Recover the amino acids of this structure.
């Protein structure tokens, strides 16, 4: 298995190659085949870190950085490329955003041969690629709402339709362009004018007649929309809520569940049928919840004025607790509905079987994980001579490689701290 990880601490990339059964926390367990650090930052401060990664048509590795830099790296003939030339920087775009503005989304627009980058400030840009030339300037997109956003996603079922939301910025569904669309449209002067398709309305006041705050953290489009012009959307909030919207049933959510007390950080579907969802919070939760089954009397609230209030909660199907996860999990990827890849504050990369929730690999990276890209799920077969002596030699070599990578990370962090101190 092969993964590319964006490091929060250093702004660099890590390439992890391991097999099922890997566990760096156990000395006698299988160790990773390779953990390599690639310094791909631009030499600026810590804020110049990659928050989103995407593989663009197996040609480019694209990273969106805090402060508006979009870095394009080479992925062609990766296995034949010399080690020092791997992930070589091809081009950097500098977008017109504040130095502290954080990318919340990096989306491939395959029919347009383009990518879309959305920032917390609600600034959105589309960048078009044509061959190996990077001569198209980024095109800004003005959203109907200028409030900050924390989620911006594309509808995988309908091309050109997107949804976004954030703190006190309720769910909106927009259309950016009509179908069919191709990259040829960039030969003329293009102007994207979003059309609002749906604007959500907050839920009713709670049992104390108080307004319920809005803070959307993640959005997913459901594929079982009732009509071609309608949409079903699942959102999570920083208040531990999951809400389901159906545009044919009004502006308010048709379902509203409170599943945890902490803020929900990441969310992905748990199966191909979209009958379950996997969420993480800022504490240690990585839980799988059913979207079709609920416990009708699971949440009980006692109020002196309203009496006992009973509300349904989505059925918890299980937690991905093997491996001792601690801290927020920012990176969460469902790879082919087969494995779940997770990484976050505790500096471990964990790989789980989605169906059984068993841990398949656990690798200590030495850096906090912001984003992870799944490159390959196949285990490479190794030719190992029979005998314990040969096996021990391989394990020791891998352990030395891991220690070397960790020392490289520490040196890089200290150099950045010294540079920051000298600037002060």
């Amino acid at each position: 298995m092969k993964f590319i990880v964006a490091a929060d601490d250093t702004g660099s990339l890590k390439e992890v190659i391991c097999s099922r059964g890997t566990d760096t926390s156990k000395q006698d367990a299988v160790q990773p085949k390779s953990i390599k650090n690639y310094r791909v930052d631009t030499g600026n401060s810590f804020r110049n870190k990659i928050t989103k990664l995407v593989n663009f048509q197996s040609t480019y590795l694209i990273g969106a950085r805090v402060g508006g830099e979009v870095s394009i790296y080479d992925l062609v003939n990766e296995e034949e490329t010399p080690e020092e030339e791997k992930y070589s920087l091809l081009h950097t775009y500098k977008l017109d955003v504040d130095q502290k503005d954080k990318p919340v989304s990096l989306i491939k627009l395959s029919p347009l041969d383009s990518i879309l980058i959305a920032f917390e400030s609600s600034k959105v840009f589309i960048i078009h690629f044509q061959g190996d030339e990077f001569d198209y300037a980024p095109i800004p997109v003005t959203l109907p709402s200028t409030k900050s956003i924390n989620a911006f996603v594309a509808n995988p079922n309908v091309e050109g339709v997107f949804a976004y939301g954030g703190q006190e910025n309720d769910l909106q569904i927009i259309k950016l362009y009509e179908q069919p669309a191709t990259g040829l449209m960039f030969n003329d002067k293009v102007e994207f004018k979003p059309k609002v398709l749906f604007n959500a309305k907050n839920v009713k006041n709670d049992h104390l007649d108080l307004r319920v705050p809005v803070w959307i953290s993640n959005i997913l489009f459901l594929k079982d929309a009732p009509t071609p012009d309608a949409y079903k959307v699942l959102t999570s909030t920083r208040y531990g809520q999951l809400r389901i919207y159906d545009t044919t049933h009004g502006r308010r959510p048709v379902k509203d569940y409170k599943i945890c007390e902490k803020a929900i950080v990441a969310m992905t579907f748990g199966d191909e049928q979209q009958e379950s969802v996997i969420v993480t919070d800022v504490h240690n939760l990585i839980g799988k919840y059913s979207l079709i089954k609920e416990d009708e009397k699971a949440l009980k609230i006692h109020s002196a004025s309203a009496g006992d209030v009973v509300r349904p909660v989505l059925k918890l199907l299980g937690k991905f607790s093997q491996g001792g996860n601690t801290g927020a999990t920012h990176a969460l990827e469902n790879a082919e509905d087969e494995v779940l890849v997770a990484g976050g504050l505790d500096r471990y990369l964990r790989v789980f079987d989605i169906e059984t929730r068993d841990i398949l690999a656990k690798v200590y990276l030495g850096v906090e994980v912001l984003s992870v890209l799944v490159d390959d799920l196949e285990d490479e077969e190794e030719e190992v001579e029979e005998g314990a002596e040969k096996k021990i030699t391989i394990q020791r070599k891998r352990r030395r490689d891991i220690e070397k990578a960790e020392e490289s990370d520490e040196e890089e962090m200290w150099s950045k701290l010294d540079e920051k101190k000298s600037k002060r």
Observations:
- The first strand starts at residue 2 and ends at 7.
